Amino acid sequence: MTNWYYADRLRQQQGPIDDAQLARLFQENAVTLDTLVWRDGLANWQPLRDFAGELALVELPPTPVVSAAPPVVEPVLAATQDPEVPVQAAAPAPEEAPTTGRAVFQAQEPRHQAQRDADLASYSPYTAPAAAVASHSSVVQGGEVVYAGFWKRVAAYIIDSFVVGVAGGIIGAIIGGIIGAGFGLNGGLGTGGMLAIQAVTNIVSICLSASYYGWFHASNHQATLGKMAIGIKVVRSNGEPISFLRGFGRYFALIISGITLCIGFIMAGFTERKQALHDMICDTLVVDKWAYTDHPEWQKRELGTLTVVILVIGGLLALLGIGLIVFAVGMAASMGR
C-alpha cells in the first residue's frame, strides 16, 4: 500500500493516507489537481494532477473530430477593377466545455507552470515529506470556535514547564560554572558569589521563559511546544495572531495569575471564552489549532489521549512531590526530638 502525504489549503502537511483515501478527498473537493503531494520514491513534492491517471481521478475526453473546412471559392475578378485578396472561410469554433456534471480535464490544459516551479523550488528531497508552512496572517472569521478548556491548558503547561526547566537548568549550570570559576580565581566564592550566581540565574531564567513563550506564540504555529502537542494555539480576541512583544508580556501576566493563589489560572474553567486572568490582561484567547481557519470542522472538543496521559503523569509527579515533602518534614521532626 502506498502512503501519500499532501499539503492542505494552509500548506500544512497531512497524512499518511492510502490511494483510496486520497481519491475520496479529491471527490469531496478537499484536495484539487493543484494540491502538492508526496510519496516514497519522489524526490520532490508534485501536484496531484501528475498522478491523476495513476489514481484514476480524471477522465480524458475522446479526441474531438474536426470537420474539414469548406472549399475555398475563387473570387470572380472584374476586368476594370483591381484584383481583391480572396477571403478564406473561417474554421468552425471549438466546442465549449460542459459547465455542469463531473469535470473533464483536457490533456493540453495549462498547468500554471510558473507557479508550479515556484512551489517545487522550495522543497528539498532531504526534507520530504515536510510541507511548506503558510503565513498565519489569513484569519477566517464566521466559523465555529472551540476554546481550549482548563485541562488542555494544564497539560500544555506541564510540557512547556519541562522544556523550559531543562533548558534553564542547563543554562544556569553554565552561568554558575563561569561565575564560580571567576570568584575562585579571586580567592573563593563566598556569600557574595552565591548571591551573584543566584541573581544572574534567576534573571536569565525569567528572560528565557518569556522569550520562549513570546517567540513560539508569535510563530506560524501560534503555539508553544506544549500547545502544539495538545493541539491548541494562542490568538487575539478577534482571532488574529499575536506579536512577539504581546507574547513576551503575556508571560509576566501569567506570573500574576500564579501569585493570586492560582485563581487567575482557574478562571479559564469558568469564563465564557475560557480566558484566564492573563488572557484578559493581554486580550488573548486559547483555542483549538483549527479555529479561525478554512477547516473549523476539524476542531476537537474532547481532551484527547495525549492530554489525558500528560495529566496522569503530572498528577503522579505532584503526588510524589507532596509525599517527599511530607517524608522530609517527618524526618526532620523525628531528628529534633
UniProtKB/TrEMBL annotation:
Residues 4-52 form the GYF domain. The chain crosses the membrane at residues 162-183, 195-215, 251-270, 306-333. Keywords: Cell membrane, Membrane, Transmembrane, Transmembrane helix. The keyword Transmembrane applies. Its main location: membrane. Residues 147-282 form the RDD domain. Signal peptide: none annotated. Pfam families: GYF_2 (PF14237), RDD (PF06271). It is a multi-pass membrane protein. One of its GO terms (cellular component) is plasma membrane. It is found in: Cell membrane. This is RDD family protein. It comes from Pseudoxanthomonas composti.
